[in-house]
Amino acid sequence: MSRIIAGVAGGLPLNSVPGNGTRPTTDRVKEALFSRLESYGVLEGAEVLDLFAGSGALGLEAGSRGAAAVTLVDLETKAVLACQKNAALLKESAPRVRVSVQRSKVNAFLERSAGAAWDLVFLDPPYPLTEDELAHVLTLLSAQLAEGAVVVVERSSRSPEPAWPAALERFAEKKYGETVLWFAEPA
Prior knowledge:
transferase; SAM-dependent_MTases_sf; seven-stranded mixed beta sheet; alpha/beta; EC 2.1.1.171; 16S rRNA (guanine(966)-N(2))-methyltransferase activity; Rossmann fold
């Protein structure tokens, strides 16, 4: 069972997405990820975007740890329903956090939200998403980042490194068994 690990909602169990189309981020990876993000000072008061959100666990963890607003985006109905339930659970522990759940294709959402300035973005796309499709998402996203923003891409450790657009620069990579995290910032 997925849960929020730390912050004001630490220990809160989250609803998972029914079926087998999503891969929840393990607690081990999530704890390491958020320890790193806290060391970067990017969480407090952040505007967070969680693309391909699944259950919304990453975005909601950020909300529990001090983010001001979290937007969860997924197209699958079961994922959106899980996000909505989990967002309501977070609101009970952290009413100050603004949480929005968007049922949308990621590209369409990014095209509609032109002019946004995200501080922290999580991308945990489904493995069948091609590298070209991921590169296109990163290109759309790169114009919507605040100064000092951090982008985290989670993929299979067998996946190649994403093709970063010129406006994004990878600054770190960390492997955890079958999972790899890439960290990028505006160039």
